[in-house]
Write a structure and sequence with these properties.
disordered C terminus; alpha+beta; four-stranded antiparallel beta sheet
Length: 450
């Protein structure tokens, strides 16, 4: 009897233990389930849109299938990075396909090279006319052709002048009179002889008789029938009116001689480039006659007027020509390097889209993000343009394919303004599972069957 009672007690205790264990397990499950449910509520994600699985650029605001029957992929809010104002995206694959290239905005000296063609001319300051101050006849011509190179002091011609002969006679007589009256006790007589000698000597000098010729006349006492005219400079005879035997009047030009040890190169510079040219600038000059060689001249004069027909202004360059290699009327290729700004924020000129009313640069922000930005530009020089505002040092700008990027951004903006979000023709196509016949289509179908 006692054994049976013990068995009952054991069974009762086991049942009680099981009940208590079940109650404890249920309570624990309740305690652990509530936080989990709360976590699930917190993890609930918001769908922004659905995108085509084969083309991420195709989007839809509701679930749908593509042409191959594949479901559109949902894009959640936490998967999309917040965009900056004015920034748009282009897939990296398309960026690479259209060949987008970028360059960093940086400070650099902005220089412009003015290229033009010049013509060699005589240096006007080194042109000489040869003439006499007395009349007479040309008896001998030592230089009788144009283009002949003469040295300074080289004889050009001889002239016979009766006035010159008589003056030489007077000068020799004045010398004798001065010597004879030197010991005279009469001051008036002595001073008169000295005055006659001085006046006669001065007359010879006024006729361009040199001191050497006068000295020789004094020493030799020989009256020369002719007077020799010499070249005043080393140069080239460019005009020669003198002819043997002709009579010449005082002041009549007999030769025109050009000293071309220095020549001018005359340039025509467009008026919009004139502000870049300064006195003293160095010019690089090349000639077709001397290939591979570069010569250097200096800007010495800016003409204070311009040509109204060509809208150009003249610039004069001085070029050394000691060996007479440069001849007047030769063409010269000239380059003048002008510093527009020693330090300026610049970008390649291909980075600027000029619409005529405004200038736009497309800033590359990386990862397929681009921002069109209005800029203000200054001077352009050698492939670069000065940026006055709109860009900062260190930013990257698109230098190639920017027109394609700009066109794409404008198209997106236009479509977005019309539809509220971008759709393509593929989005409007209905999937096979969604095609429903319209009532009119059913009636036409039945009519055909009948």
């Amino acid at each position: 009897m006692s054994n049976q009672q013990d068995k009952r007690n054991l069974i009762l205790a086991g049942v009680i233990f099981l009940i208590i264990g079940g109650l404890l397990g249920f309570g624990v499950s309740l305690l652990t389930k509530r936080p989990a449910e709360k976590a699930e509520v917190k993890k609930e994600r918001k769908i922004l849109y659905y995108r085509n699985p084969m083309n991420p650029e195709i989007k839809s605001d509701k679930p749908m299938k593509d042409e191959m029957g594949m479901d559109y992929i949902p894009v959640y809010e936490d998967e999309v990075k917040p965009e900056e104002p004015g920034v748009f995206r282009i897939p990296i694959e398309r960026v690479q396909k259209i060949g987008v290239r970028s360059e960093v905005v940086d400070y650099r000296p902005l220089k412009r090279i003015i290229r033009t063609v010049g013509i060699v001319e005589y240096d006007e300051k080194k042109l000489y006319f040869v003439n006499t101050k007395i009349g007479g006849w040309i008896e001998n011509l030592f230089v009788n052709t144009t283009g002949q190179i003469v040295k300074k002091g080289e004889p050009l011609l001889e002239i016979y002048s009766p006035d010159l002969v008589s003056t030489q006679q007077e000068y020799l007589g004045a010398i004798k009179a001065e010597k004879a009256m030197k010991g005279s006790s009469f001051d008036e007589v002595r001073k008169g002889a000295e005055s006659l000698l001085t006046v006669t000597r001065q007359r010879l000098k006024y006729w361009d008789i040199t001191d050497e010729q006068i000295k020789r006349l004094e020493l030799e006492g020989i009256i020369r029938r002719t007077m020799t005219i010499v070249s005043p400079v080393k140069g080239i005879v460019i005009e020669k009116p003198a002819i043997r035997g002709m009579y010449i009047n005082p002041g009549e030009n007999l030769y025109k001689i050009a000293d071309i040890s220095t020549v001018w190169v005359q340039l025509d510079i467009y008026e919009y480039e004139m502000h870049l040219v300064r006195l003293g600038q160095t010019a690089r000059i090349t000639f077709g006659s001397y290939p591979g060689r570069t010569f250097y001249g200096k800007v010495v004069y800016l003409y204070p007027y311009h040509e109204p027909t060509t809208r150009t202004m003249k610039v004069r360059i001085e070029l050394s020509n000691e060996d007479f290699r440069f001849m007047p009327t030769m063409y010269a290729n000239v380059e003048i390097e002008a510093v527009v700004s020693p330090k300026a924020i610049t970008v390649p000129d291909t980075a600027i889209i000029d619409t005529g009313e405004r200038q736009i640069a497309i800033v590359d922000k990386g990862e397929g993000r681009f921002e069109p930005r209005l800029v203000k530009v200054g001077f352009k020089a050698e492939g670069y343009v000065e940026v006055l505002s709109g860009l900062k040092e260190g930013e990257k700008v698109v230098t190639s394919a920017n027109f394609l990027i700009d066109s794409e951004s404008n198209l997106r903006a236009a479509l977005g303004g019309l539809t509220g979000h971008v759709h393509t023709p593929l989005e409007k196509k209905e999937s096979p599972s969604e095609i429903k016949e319209k009532p009119e289509e059913k009636m036409e179908h039945k009519h055909i069957q009948n």
